[in-house]
């Protein structure tokens, strides 16, 4: 068994992270709200490793304890900790972002209501891209259902110490072996099935090198990946934000973002993409975090939290 504690940069709200999962279901994560804990699978190379994580600190003195039953080498242990730190945005300093957000009265309240909220990333880039393709132009609940069906079909079961299993997200090889008919039988649309399989095969045949993306700038990645069928700017922006943790993304075509901006700024009609990009100019260089807080305002209302603007 491998155990360790990771210090987190304050403020850090594990509660807000768990609340966000209520409106953004992720079948790859098993949550225990009473114990402030969750389980999810990370891949060390191709090996799926189930990790149990528990928040053991406070908002201002946060820490995350994690453990796994897997027998890991020192190198793999270090890699796993790096992945966990990235996934949970452990090193992000929100204080400088809050200082800038408070310059707008419409957004200042969000820094109080959602204090300590930060991005939780997907476990790897392939998982993030496939989930984003699945989520194109459908609601969150149906997207989660389709993702679960894909994982059940092509994923790899991993058990915890109590014999409870989580199915690891499929590898590119596993998805590349699927046929469109396999996915159509699970209620995937023809095009969505084609896009997912095409993307997986592009990785397997090395047309796309996901590791190389980490060395590239945002616009370079957008140009590279939008050359693939079925992958547009919004899809890559989501990958940059929720897969790579890039901090200055503004997915202006996102419906939820548009709804949140209307709500916060008291607009009578929805802004178009150009309006949002113009508004977001003053959010740089933290536009991803601004978007997260705008989305969370919409999510809080959906969860019927007591929330006044």
Question: What is the fold's blueprint, element by element?
Answer:
Elements (H helix, E strand, L loop, with lengths): L1 E6 L6 H10 L5 E4 L4 E8 L2 E9 L7 E6 L5 H14 L6 H8 L3 H9 L11 H11 L4 H15 L1 E4 L5 E4 L3 H5 L3 H5 L5 H15 L13 H8 L7 H10 L12 H11 L7 H7 L7 H16 L7
In brief, what are we looking at here?
Helices cover 47% and strands 13% of the residues. The protein has 309 residues and is of the alpha+beta class. The strands form 2 sheets. It has a 5-stranded antiparallel β-sheet with strand order 1-5-4-3-2. Strands 6-7 form a two-stranded antiparallel sheet.
Q: Tell me the radius of gyration.
A: 19 Å
* Average pLDDT score: 93
Shape: globular
The helix/strand class is: alpha+beta
**SSE sequence, one letter per element:** EHEEEEHHHHHEEHHHHHHHH
Strand order of the largest sheet: 1-5-4-3-2
Spans of at least 5 consecutive residues whose pLDDT stays below 50 are none
How much β-strand is present in the residues? 5-15%
């Amino acid at each position: 068994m491998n155990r360790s504690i990771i210090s987190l940069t304050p403020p850090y709200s594990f509660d807000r992270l768990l609340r966000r999962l209520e409106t953004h279901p992720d079948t790859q994560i098993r949550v225990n709200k009473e114990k402030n804990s969750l389980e999810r699978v990370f891949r060390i190379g191709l090996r799926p490793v189930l990790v149990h994580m528990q928040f053991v600190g406070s908002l201002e003195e946060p820490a995350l304890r994690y453990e796994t039953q897997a027998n890991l080498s020192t190198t793999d242990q270090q890699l796993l900790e790096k992945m966990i730190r990235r996934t949970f945005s452990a090193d992000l300093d929100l204080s400088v972002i809050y200082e800038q957000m408070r310059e707008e009265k419409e957004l200042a309240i969000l820094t109080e209501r959602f204090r300590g909220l930060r991005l939780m990333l997907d476990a790897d880039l392939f998982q993030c891209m496939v989930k984003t393709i699945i989520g194109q132009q459908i609601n969150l609940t149906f997207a989660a259902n389709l993702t679960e069906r894909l994982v059940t079909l092509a994923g790899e079961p991993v058990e915890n110490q109590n014999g409870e299993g989580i199915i690891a997200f499929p590898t590119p090889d596993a998805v590349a072996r699927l046929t469109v008919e396999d996915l159509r039988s699970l209620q995937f649309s023809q095009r969505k099935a084609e896009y997912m399989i095409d993307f997986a095969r592009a990785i397997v045949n090395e047309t796309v090198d996901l590791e190389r993306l980490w060395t590239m700038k945002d616009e370079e990645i957008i140009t590279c990946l939008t050359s693939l069928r079925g992958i547009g700017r919004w899809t890559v922006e989501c990958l940059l934000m929720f897969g790579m943790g890039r901090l200055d993304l503004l997915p202006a075509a996102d419906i939820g973002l548009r709804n949140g901006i209307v709500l916060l700024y008291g607009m009578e009609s929805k802004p178009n993409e150009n309006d949002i990009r113009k508004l977001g100019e003053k959010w740089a260089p933290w536009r991803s975090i601004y978007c997260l807080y705008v989305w969370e305002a919409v999510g809080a209302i959906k969860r019927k939290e007591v929330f006044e603007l």
